[in-house]
């Protein structure tokens, strides 16, 4: 009688196990890569949104920042300034339409200005915090709770 | 053991082949899948790495921005003090980089970086030599070190101090360029010589400059721009020539003179005041000359002879003697009178204006002055008190040569008073009572209006007296009339011989050409004309507060160079006092300037110039420690609505004294405005806030 060739159960189980390990590894790698990519993507958006008020405020200068800190600055003149209320979270989805890309509208921003005088220099520390504003893809993919950027503006004459 | 679940039976050869194909496909799929996923993973890692890099660069960017904030602030602080090392570095345009310490940024960047990092930040500034311009758009050269250029600020950041120690290039470097301007706010001037170059701040050389002083003197009713009892002006100066400003009444010279009626406090009897002592205090004339002046004396003598003849007739008839010869008697009497009587002219130079004309003699003097002035018209009719160009006393002239204080044909006006009386020696051949009678009746003031004054007594005949005085003046080449004299320069120590006047120096126009002060137009005298050198320019006056030049909360005016406002400028409010810090000025390009607040210098070295070319300056304050310049457009005036004290320079087209508030106005020249040595020229540096160039280089590890 001719012996019929085949795989033993052990062989099949080992093969399945190895295949599973390989596939799971690939699956994990894929998911991790996806997470990293999306995290980097949204982090980049968050950094851009955080940098914006720093650039604006540096241009406005120390005296204006002092008013801003006290809530006395006029923010109505510019859509960008309207999106920068002092000390409170601002949902970028509430900004003027078209001001920010769609992905950024899932973020919220808080700007804090604090005195930072030292070494005979009068200055303000500006801290911008960015966080997801709601349960959306951003919240899913962004790994950090907050993206924070900080800068300083000093008094000039 | 046998397999309980054998693979489906198949032909031996065919089954082996199929098995091999499936395995190969599975393996291939897995390999491809693995490659794709690994690639995807690699890409995602790269993406993550790129994002992290961007974030790091962003943080590094913020760090160098912080460094730049401090670097600019430090350099700007240096420029706020014209004597600082940084300001001198810019003024001298030194090639070496100027280091800027960053203690603030070094401390604060630790908040921006990770705790494991050990960042180092440094900054310096460099002048961009090729950018510097020291001529205006027409090619006119600026004064001295004045000019416009660019300064490059460079901030470098190393993430670790070890990297810097190893000489590695900085991780990030931020380079920015800003414009800067150097402007001279005080430049050297020797009062005795002309400027060799045009300096836009030349008005500060003058305690008072009235460009159209002569024109105004002639056109204002009675020349009240210079002689005014209501609005009195006193210019106080003291110290040495190095600390005094000049006083110029423009338009004078070549017989175009102005006069100032001398007040009694500038009159010294010994001739050491502004009024010279007469060279011949008395002049004696003969009895015959007296007869020319007073023909009535002859009548008086004839009467006397008649009396004598009557007496002699009576005496001769009783003595049976022949009557005496009248001609002989007359000859004898005149001979005695010629020997006994003579005339004395007394010359005195007296002030044109006194505070108090009490007493009969002074009242008479005043009446004479009034009568003389009444015969004049125009400025000559004005016998009001002249402005005091050298202060309340003569000290300024005693410490400074007059021609280093005054320019132009400015003259003292005073009364030359000539008295006449007859005198005689006692003689027993003549009746003493008659001599006394003649002396009494011939005492006069020698003015052409003698009869009208009532002086001169009964023997005076107006027409004969005037004719007589003219005859004697011609005979002796001497002026025997009382007059108001305005032929002497406004200075002490002059004599009746040829009194020297004051020099009139030329000015310089933008192109550096020598021109008279009166030259107008763009090629004429134009102060503060280089608009390129103005530190700040704004449309309206209220912006002065926004840029902190005027700080109403602190009550300060903060200056560093010149700020230009296009429209009208209003400084402060009534009752307010503002302190002036720094050096510079506030200009109105097309409007007028109104000063409502009192202005005080915050320090000895502070000074401020208010300048308008086309408008006027109105001062509603009582104390202004600032210079006022309304010059260039041809119509500028400065009006004081209250008695004021100004400490600074006052320069205007017209003085308009007649429009000032009644009372005493005092101008005190501020010595800080004066410099004789070019090494003490004072420059200020304006560093522009706008960024003219920026380059950020980062990620160099």
Automatic annotation (TrEMBL), chain A:
Lineage top rank: taxon: Bacteria
Bilayer-spanning residue ranges: 7-29
InterPro entries: N_methyl_site
Pfam assignment, any one: N_methyl
Name of the molecule in the record: Prepilin-type N-terminal cleavage/methylation domain-containing protein
Originating organism: Candidatus Ozemobacter sibiricus
Entry keywords, A to Z: Membrane, Transmembrane, Transmembrane helix
Keyword Transmembrane helix included in the entry's annotation: yes
TrEMBL record, chain B:
TM segment ranges: 21-40
Entry keywords, A to Z: Membrane, Transmembrane, Transmembrane helix
Protein name: Uncharacterized protein
Lineage start: Bacteria, Candidatus Ozemobacteria, Candidatus Ozemobacterales, Candidatus Ozemobacteraceae, Candidatus Ozemobacter
């Amino acid at each position: 009688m001719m012996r019929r060739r085949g795989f033993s159960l052990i062989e099949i189980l080992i093969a399945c196990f190895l295949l599973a390990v390989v596939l799971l590894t690939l699956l994990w790698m894929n998911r991790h890569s996806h997470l990293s990519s999306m995290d980097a993507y949204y982090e980049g958006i968050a950094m851009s949104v955080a940098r914006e008020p720093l650039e604006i405020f540096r241009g406005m200068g120390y005296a204006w920042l002092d008013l801003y800190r006290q809530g006395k600055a006029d923010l109505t003149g510019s859509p960008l300034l309207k999106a920068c209320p002092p000390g409170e979270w601002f949902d970028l989805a509430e900004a003027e339409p078209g001001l920010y890309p769609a992905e950024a509208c899932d973020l919220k921003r808080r700007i804090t200005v604090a005195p930072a005088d030292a070494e005979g220099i009068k200055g303000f520390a500006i801290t911008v915090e960015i966080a997801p504003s709601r349960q959306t893809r951003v919240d899913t993919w962004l790994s950090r709770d907050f993206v924070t950027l900080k800068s300083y503006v000093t008094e000039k004459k | 053991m046998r397999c309980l679940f054998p693979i489906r039976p198949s032909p031996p050869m065919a089954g082996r082949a199929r098995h091999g194909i499936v395995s190969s496909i599975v393996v291939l799929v897995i390999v491809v899948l693995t490659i794709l996923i690994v690639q995807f993973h690699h890409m995602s890692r790269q993406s993550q790495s790129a994002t992290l890099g961007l974030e790091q660069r962003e943080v590094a960017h913020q760090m160098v921005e912080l460094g730049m904030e401090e670097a600019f602030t430090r350099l700007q602080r240096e420029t706020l003090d014209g004597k600082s090392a940084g300001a001198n570095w810019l003024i001298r345009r030194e090639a070496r980089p100027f280091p800027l310490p960053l203690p603030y940024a070094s401390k604060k960047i630790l908040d921006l970086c990770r705790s494991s990092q050990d960042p180092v930040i440094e900054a310096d500034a460099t002048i961009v030599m090729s950018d510097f311009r020291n001529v205006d758009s027409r090619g006119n050269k600026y004064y001295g070190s004045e000019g416009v250029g660019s300064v490059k600020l460079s901030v470098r950041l190393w993430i670790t101090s070890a990297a810097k120690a190893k000489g590695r290039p900085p991780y990030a470097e931020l380079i920015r360029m800003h414009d800067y301007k150097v402007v001279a706010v005080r430049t050297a001037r020797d009062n005795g010589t002309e400027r060799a170059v045009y300096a836009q701040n030349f008005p500060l050389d003058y305690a008072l400059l009235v460009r159209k002083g002569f024109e105004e003197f002639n056109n204002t009713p009675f020349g009240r721009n210079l002689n005014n009892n209501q609005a009195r002006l006193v210019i106080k100066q003291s110290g040495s020539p190095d600390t005094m400003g000049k006083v110029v009444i423009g338009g004078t010279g070549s017989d175009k003179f102005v006069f100032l009626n001398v007040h009694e406090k500038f009159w010294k009897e010994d001739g050491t005041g502004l009024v010279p002592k007469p060279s011949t205090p008395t002049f004696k004339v003969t009895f015959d000359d007296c007869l020319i002046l007073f023909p009535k004396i002859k009548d008086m003598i004839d009467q006397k002879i008649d009396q004598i003849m009557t007496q002699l007739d009576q005496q001769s008839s009783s003595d049976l003697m022949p009557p005496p010869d009248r001609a002989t008697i007359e000859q004898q009497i005149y001979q005695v009178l010629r020997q006994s009587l003579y005339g004395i002219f007394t010359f005195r130079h007296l002030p044109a204006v006194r505070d108090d004309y009490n007493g009969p003699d002074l009242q008479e003097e005043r009446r004479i002055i009034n009568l003389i002035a009444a015969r004049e018209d125009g400025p000559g009719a004005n016998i009001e008190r002249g402005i005091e160009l050298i202060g309340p006393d003569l000290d300024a002239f005693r410490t400074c040569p007059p021609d280093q204080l005054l320019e132009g044909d400015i003259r003292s006006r005073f009364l030359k008073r000539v008295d006449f009386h007859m005198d005689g020696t006692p003689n027993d051949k003549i009746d003493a009572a008659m001599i006394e009678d003649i002396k009494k009746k011939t005492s006069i003031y020698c003015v052409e209006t003698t009869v009208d004054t009532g002086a001169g007594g009964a023997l005076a005949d107006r027409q004969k007296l005037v004719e007589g005085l003219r005859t004697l003046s011609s005979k002796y080449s001497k002026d025997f009339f009382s007059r108001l004299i305005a032929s002497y320069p406004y200075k002490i120590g002059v004599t009746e011989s040829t009194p020297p006047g004051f020099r009139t120096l030329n000015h310089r126009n933008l192109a550096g050409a020598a021109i008279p002060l009166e030259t107008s137009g763009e090629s004429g005298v134009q102060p503060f004309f280089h608009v390129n050198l103005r530190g700040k320019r704004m449309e309206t006056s209220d912006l002065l507060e926004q840029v902190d030049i005027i700080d109403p909360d602190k009550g300060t005016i903060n200056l560093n160079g010149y700020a230009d406002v296009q429209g009208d400028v209003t400084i402060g409010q009534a009752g307010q006092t503002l302190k002036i810090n720094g050096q510079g000025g506030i200009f109105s390009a097309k409007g007028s300037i109104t000063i409502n607040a009192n202005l005080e210098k915050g320090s000895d070295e502070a000074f401020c110039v208010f300048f308008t070319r086309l408008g006027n300056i109105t001062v509603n304050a009582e104390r202004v420690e600032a210079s006022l310049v309304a010059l260039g457009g041809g119509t500028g005036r400065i009006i004081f609505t209250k008695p004021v004290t100004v400490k600074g320079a006052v320069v205007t087209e017209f003085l308009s004294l007649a429009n000032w508030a009644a009372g005493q106005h005092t101008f005190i020249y501020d010595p800080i405005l004066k410099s004789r040595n070019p090494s003490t020229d004072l420059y200020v540096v304006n560093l522009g806030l706008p960024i003219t160039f920026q380059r950020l280089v980062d990620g160099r590890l």
